[in-house]
Specification:
Elements lengths: L8 H6 L16 E11 L2 E4 L3 E2 L6 E7 L5 E7 L5 E7 L5 E3 L6 E7 L5 E7 L5 E7 L6 E2 L7 E6 L4 E6 L5 E6 L5 E6 L6 E2 L5 E7 L5 E7 L5 E5 L8 E3 L5 E5 L2 E5 L8 E5 L8 E6 L5 E7 L2
Antiparallel strand pairs: 1-2, 1-3, 1-25, 4-5, 5-6, 6-7, 8-9, 9-10, 10-11, 12-13, 13-14, 14-15, 16-17, 17-18, 18-19, 20-21, 21-22, 22-23, 24-25
Length: 298
């Protein structure tokens, strides 16, 4: 199966709504990445002091933790206009640029074996395909030659990856990087795909209709899909904790939902007093003790 590119796919990578041609002049949104420790006592979750890790004009987004939880990989667009992968070391506070290419890389995601990271690369001919790099940003390798345009991705197993493939509407595609085989499983999905902790599954947001929107998961072995919970408000970004809960933001508030325990979302904290106005993407460290939050820059 071969997917053909379409116009304005780059805008979707940046989180800019895909629409009429006049939107092509819109620049990337100004966003910052915040960090806090996170702890749980009984049913209560507490956040430590919130720190702005990037704190600069421009686009800093799409954070993901390294396997040891000691660093955050993220996408940044700086003076050269290129989207590259950066690494922030939490202990030292040092920021390192990992990729410095003529292409642009988005959505860095540590692969299941923990030794490389995958990204969506916008190539010279504007093709958007899934690539892999060593953790230091070296050794780029194309993973799926015939699947494009890819917008976002999440690993369901060591060899199977869930893909947001742009189109009208965007589709959920499972792809095996060994064979290149693909299966389309859902249409009209959101931009937030995640590995489900402890299982070979990928979660995604599915818009069944204008009024029916669900976070769902797909088992990558059986291809079975089941609904989990409706999102909070209009947001589509969320993150899993290692113990199987989902965190999601709406405005300045952070919520949690636990499968099999909670009937509804429960507010954890209101970050408005810390200067947060609009939470979007979230990432939780593999150890569950650190949280990254993306918010619009004030």
């Amino acid at each position: 199966m071969r997917f053909q590119p379409r116009r304005f796919v780059l805008l979707a990578l940046l989180g800019i709504p895909v629409g009429p041609p006049e939107l092509s002049a819109q620049g990337p949104p100004a966003t910052d990445i915040y960090f806090a420790t996170i702890s749980q006592r009984g049913n209560q979750i507490r956040l430590g002091t919130l720190a702005n890790l990037t704190d600069r004009p421009g686009y800093d987004n799409q954070p993901t933790f390294t396997p040891d939880g000691g660093a955050i990989l993220y996408t940044s667009i700086r003076g050269d206009g290129q989207a590259d992968t950066y690494r922030y070391d939490i202990a030292s506070g040092r920021t390192t640029r990992l990729t410095r290419t003529t292409e642009s890389e988005y959505s860095p995601t540590v692969t299941p074996e923990g030794k490389t990271f995958s990204t969506v690369r916008v190539e010279a001919d504007s093709a958007q395909r899934l690539w892999q790099f060593a953790l230091d940003g070296s050794d780029p390798r194309l993973l799926l030659e015939h699947v494009a345009p890819v917008g976002y991705h999440a690993w369901g197993s060591e060899h199977v990856v869930g893909l947001f493939v742009l189109g009208t509407p965007p589709t959920l595609v499972l792809a095996d990087i060994r064979s290149g085989d693909t299966t389309t499983l859902a249409h009209d999905i959101g931009r937030s795909l995640h590995t489900v902790p402890g299982r070979q599954a990928v979660s995604f947001v599915h818009r069944e209709s204008d009024t029916e929107v669900w976070i769902k998961e797909v088992d990558v072995a059986t291809r079975a899909i089941r609904p989990l919970v409706r999102p909070v408000g209009e947001n589509e970004f969320y993150a899993w904790t290692p113990d199987g809960a989902i965190l999601m933001g709406e405005g300045a508030k952070l919520y949690r939902w636990r499968p099999g325990t909670d009937q509804a979302w429960h507010e954890i904290v209101d970050l408005g007093s810390a200067g947060i106005e609009s939470i979007s993407r979230l990432a939780v460290s593999p150890q569950g003790d650190r949280l990254a939050i993306v918010a619009s820059r004030r």
